[in-house]
Amino acid sequence: MHYDRDMARNYRTVSKQDKKKFRVQQAEDIEGLKKRVEEFDPAENSGITKFDELPLTKDTLKGLQEAGYVNLTDIQRDAIPVCLQGHDILGAAKTGSGKTLSFLVPALERLMYEKWGELDGVGALIITPTRELAVQIYEVLLKIGHYSTLSAGLVIGGKDYKYEKERIGRVNILIGTPGRILQHMDESATLNLDNLQMLILDEADRILDMGFHKTIDSILSDLPPQRQTLLFSATQTKSVKDLARLSLVTPKYISTSTEQDITTPESLDQYYISTNLYEKLDILWSFIKAHITSKILVFVSSSKQVHFIYECFRKLRPGVQLLKLHGRQKQKARMETTQQFTHASHCCLFATDVVARGLDFPAIDWVVQVDCPEDATTYIHRVGRSARFGRPGKSLLMLTSSEEEPFLKRLESRKITVKKLNVKGSKKKSIRNQLQSLCFESPELKYLGQKSFVSYCKSVFVQKDKEVFDLTKLPLEMYAKSMGLPGTPSVKFMDRAKKGKGLTDAEMTKIKAKKNASRKLMIIENADDNGDVPEDKKVRTKYDKMFERKNQSVLSEHYLQMTKGDDDDDTDDFLTVRRNVDEVDESELPPLELINTSKRAMKRAMSKKLTAMKQGKGTKLVFDDEGHAHPIYVLQHEDDFHKEGPAMVLKEKFLHKEKETMNKEDELDKTVAKEKRTEKKRRRKEIEKQASLHEELSDEESAYTVVLGESDDQEEPDLDKDLAMGEEVEREKRAEVESDDEEERPQKKVKLDETSDKDEQNVIEIEQPETIDDLEALTEKLINNDA
């Protein structure tokens, strides 16, 4: 709580006599207020409308005025005077009626009457069901108690426990959630509740519905019985009345209306639409696109649905700021989201029922309920986030054909009338293809969609009102397609739903208690005398679950169970990895839980290419004369190396030896090259000599003269052999050019004479043929010329 420094400074500077007068005057004022409170008759003063007409201290009135609280609401006018007189209260009023000030003002006044100090411990304990509501109450308390010398503390899950533990001993008004308060009562030695004056439970019915029965019983058992207890809630259920009988002593029931009359705000316009389950996301997207300048609060059943819808819509970019809020988020993220939505003018918040109770978000234009609420009471709390304190607001409820008729009857029984709206076909836009594309591109988003699907089915299955919530009547396959999923995930409890077997009250209570239980308290309860927890009773955190996954991104056991039914067998996988452990020492094998047996690991084990990529290039080995393998380079022992002499000398010897070896090899290579060039030159000259002899032959003996009817003993010239010889000459010539050993020889022309008696016109002069095409052309020309 803030402390008035100016007042304290002035108090320190005055004399002792003035201080004494100030204390006497303060005591007289408090005694006068006590008398006014005792004489105050709520029935006679039922017409008061402002806070300054109540018997309150000056500091409290000043804080209320500066915080903007001037006029009284009905519940405040009826509850505050009775609370100031010390009675136990069981209060009920419609949502948004100002119940928070109905217990904060009496708590401040009660401690100021008792002159509560820092060393007196906790004087008022306020318990709320959610962290966001606890933060909101704490902020209101700071505003109205600004001029008080009392201190206030907030203890909720997600905050630094050590920081709270160090300062909780100096707190006068403690606000928190049940789990964290019980944890401090068990572990914080400085927390003193022996002098507790007031116990306040806000939204008591919600505290019990969330499974905090045992936690509340443990807290009440450790509190002093001589205390004042206040229970406030928008609705009075049977569980709240049972709690009131256990913790309240001759309570006074204060309500602005009867239980059946507790309904929605009068300034709220309520609508509903009848639609198919698989069209809800399309309608929600179209609604947001049509109201981008509004402040919208969207309710769904589970946190996984919140996460999936938020991620999908965020990628599609509707043109308005999107936020998400659910119980599985970190406390810092929840606080930041709450602050952003509170101060935003155009925004859309996807949330669960964690924000359905008590939270005051200013100027919400629309409350959209995508999933049908649990009952009429939940509906009242949801729509109560809008149209608060007389402001205008609107709500929209989406109902399927199986939910419409029975749930409207539930609302009519509570005197709630909602108008039906029809969605125009031109206004509705389908995003099914976009969602399918997003799930195809992102395996993580597809996995999130599968979890969202199962979570929605579970939220329907656990409801008690089977007339409204019937899982077997829902088109789940089409709903999965509307979410962009490639197939319908398997639901374990579908067989149980078809048989009409729901969860019993005991099972529901156990689930809620386990969901909201403190992990540290569970560890303490399961520990033995030595503080050790058995393996089967250890609390598995999200990090434990993460490291148990076969693939760190998506392929966890839960994912495989959803995509593969229980009836599937593994006979199709005829190729599996089998390890032969007979030849391996079991002591050398790693633990089974450390062996990667995923499908990806089996695929890599059966592929030589993937195995080589995983293991690298490997190590080269050489075999000695005896057939033993050893590395190519074997390191010599350091002592043996030093015995051979200094390293520099050994280096010089090695280099000199290698240089001599290289010189010898160079000389040998040069000799071999010279012999090859000599042989090539000799063969070339021989071929040229044979060619010149052919040119000197007479016309009758020409190698290229074709004469019919020659004698049989005359050898026929072999044209192919000569041409092959010419080609070999050319190859030799090109080799000589490349080696630069011989000069380039000019091309030689061959003169072929038909006969010596012909004219010079009959002489054909051609170039030496180089290719097969040239040879064929030459042959054709010779034949034609001969003809």
Written overview of the protein:
The structure is a single chain. This protein is an alpha/beta fold and 787 residues long. The protein has 30 helices and 18 strands. A seven-stranded parallel beta sheet has the order 3-4-2-5-6-1-7, with helices on both faces. Strand 15 and strand 16 form a beta hairpin. It starts with a helix and ends with a helix.
Features:
787 residues; alpha/beta; Rossmann fold; 4 domains; 30 helices; elongated; P-loop_NTPase; ribosome biogenesis; nucleotide-binding; hydrolase activity; DEAD/DEAH_box_helicase_dom
Show unreliable segments.
Answer: 1-11, 551-584, 702-723, 740-761
- In round numbers, the mean pLDDT is 79
CATH topology of the largest domain: Rossmann fold
Secondary-structure class: alpha/beta
- Characterize the overall form: elongated
Output the number of helix runs.
30
The CATH architecture of the largest domain comes to 3-Layer(aba) Sandwich
What radius of gyration results from the CA coordinates? 48 Å
| Beta-strand percent range | 5-15%
The CATH H-level homologous superfamily of the largest domain: P-loop containing nucleotide triphosphate hydrolases
CATH hierarchy, class of the largest domain: Alpha Beta
Give the domain tally.
4
Report the helical percentage.
Answer: 40-55%
Distance between termini?
128 Å
Major beta sheet, strand line-up: 3-4-2-5-6-1-7
Biased composition (Basic and acidic residues): 661-678, 685-696, 720-737, 745-761
GO molecular function: ATP binding; hydrolase activity; RNA binding; RNA helicase activity
Biased composition (Acidic residues): 710-719
Motif (Q motif): 49-77
